[in-house]
Amino acid sequence: MFGSSQSGRPGHETNTEESFQIVEFLLGQDHYAINLFDVKEIVEYARITRLPNSPPYIKGIIDLRGEITTIIDLKQQLAITAESATSEENSRIIVLDDRLTSSKTGIMVDDVLTVSTCYSDQVDVTATSGDDGSHIMGIIKKQTRDKEKEVTQLIIWLDIKSLFTAMEQN
Predict the structure, then answer these.
(1) What is the separation, in whole angstroms, between the first and last Cα of the chain?
(2) What is the pLDDT of residues 23-77, one digit of tens each?
């Protein structure tokens, strides 16, 4: 990176394009991502204690190493109706960085797939709805191989900061 003109990507001779790291996860059958630096840790499902009179998207709370952590059902908050292929007990919790939320918070997802590096030329921002309430930063087009052929996988890149700002204002 320093003094090198190679970006490490085939066919890309310069390193002028911006790169960023994401955590990819499943909600229903679709792939989603948030910025890696918005994530503190990923933990396995723990028994969630329901809170009375809380909004429907608040799944409840867990005790995470002695700290009460609020769990948000991301599918409920984003109105995703697709059924997951896994049971709730097999889901994962992405604990968010403390600077994003006013209290210790995690989001429940069906599965965490990978951490990957993406480049700005892979992101299509025109594909989003343009609605300020959508909380979508863009659609990441990622090339993968499936049974010896190249396929483009679409990953919905969420703006988790704006999502939580909107939730805290309600």
Answers:
(1) 44
(2) 999 998 899 999 999 999 999 999 999 999 999 999 999 999 999 999 999 998 8
> Quick check: helix, strand or coil at residue 107?
strand
d(CA 162, CA 100): 9
72/93 Cα distance (integer angstroms) = 9
- Can you give the C-alpha Rg of the chain in angstroms? 17
Phi/psi of residue 128, each to 5°? -75, 160
Spacing of C-alpha 159 from chain mean position: 8
The residue with tokens 């988790």 is 160
Q: Give the CA-trace dihedral at 41, 42, 45, 50, to 10 degrees.
A: 50
Look up the pTM and report it. Answer: 0.83
